Automatic annotation (TrEMBL):
The keyword Cell cycle is annotated on this UniProt entry: no
Superkingdom: Bacteria
Lineage start: Bacteria, Bacillati, Bacillota, Bacilli, Lactobacillales
Transmembrane segments: 26-45, 84-105, 111-130, 151-174, 186-209, 238-255, 267-287, 293-319, 364-384
Single GO term (MF): antiporter activity
Any one GO cellular component localisation term in the record: membrane
Membrane topology, as annotated: Multi-pass membrane protein
Domain Cation/H+ exchanger transmembrane: 9-376
GO biological process, one term: proton transmembrane transport
Subcellular location: Membrane
Sorted UniProt keywords: Membrane, Transmembrane, Transmembrane helix
The protein's name: Cation:proton antiporter
Amino acid sequence: MLVSVALILVSGVVLEYSLKKLNLPALLGYLIAGILLGPFGLNLVDSDLLRLSPDIRQVALIVILTRAGLSLDIKRLLEVGRPAIMMCFVPASVEIMTSMIFGPLFFGFSLIQSLLIGAILAAVSPAVVVPRMVDLIQTHRGTKKQVPQMILAGASLDDVFVLVLFSAFLTIALGGSVSAWTFMQVPISIISGILGGAVLGYLLIFLFVYIQLKRVFQVMILLASGMVLMRLETVFTGLFSGILAVISMNIMIRTQSEKLSNDLSGSLNQIWFVAEIFLFFLVGVSVNPANALSYGFLPILFIILLSLCRLFIGVRLCLLDTPFNKKEKRFVLMSYLPKATVQAAIGSVPLANGIPGGELMLTLAVLSILITAPIGAIGMDYFAPRLLTNDSE
């Protein structure tokens, strides 16, 4: 297994360097490397590592949620106003509702299967979007009208919204039946998750501020707390959202101490580099190219239709009656296209839980990354200086 880990790390470094030279997101390389080196390719990955794959992806998801919570500025979201708040849930809702229509037509999915795949595919990728928005803010590109701020805030909560819905849909799918109590569990899990995470976050603030711990110990305790919260979701099935609790815990930390949250985020960025390599590599390992090709052109058409509905209905609804000009609106549309991180983290969950159609759901998740991530990344890099004003001048 050590040789497999070394292979993943070395290939990750090489791909990170190579794809950055081409202005492409490195995660695409990790994903393709996993497909090529996995059991359906050259079969160079040790089986013991494959058995640990679900746990490793769970840890990567916790890192994603922690970074999202620490970077989410509620005040900034309120300053941008209505469009930013709508961007948090309207585009994703449109994509999930579109999946409800096309899922049964294309693949014969049931209602809950269609909702699951809609939730998997709906989230914007923070790995692709967030770094680019931070760069735009630092270079004062489009900041006068707060275009990158709106995208950054909206995309952060978009992931939270989608992950909570996915958790609720997964609970229903595993239960096998839908009742009034099933739907009542959704608000209960949301409220308990928010409160539980907020209380733990407040306690961690006390621990980190009043007891001087080394930064590395703070990060370790923070991630361990996230793991405990995610475990509570399985203990109190349907009554506690571990995903929302992790987000809430870190939002509380940012609210109480912005400096501490920035310091923790900086440390987590280093951890995320390694976690990202393993996350996308192991997702690629799970993909059977032969099965993916056997579905034909339908999955690609399905993803394109969902993306177009999201952009031209969901995003445009959010931008109605806003001060943005046509160029700025086009850039916002482009920025909401890429999918990657969340799809990699949860795309294989239905398959791992034995849900019918799980393999097809994983295939759709991987294809969505391969199709939308490079288009979105290249599009944002190319069009940002052409569509957004330089407000530093």
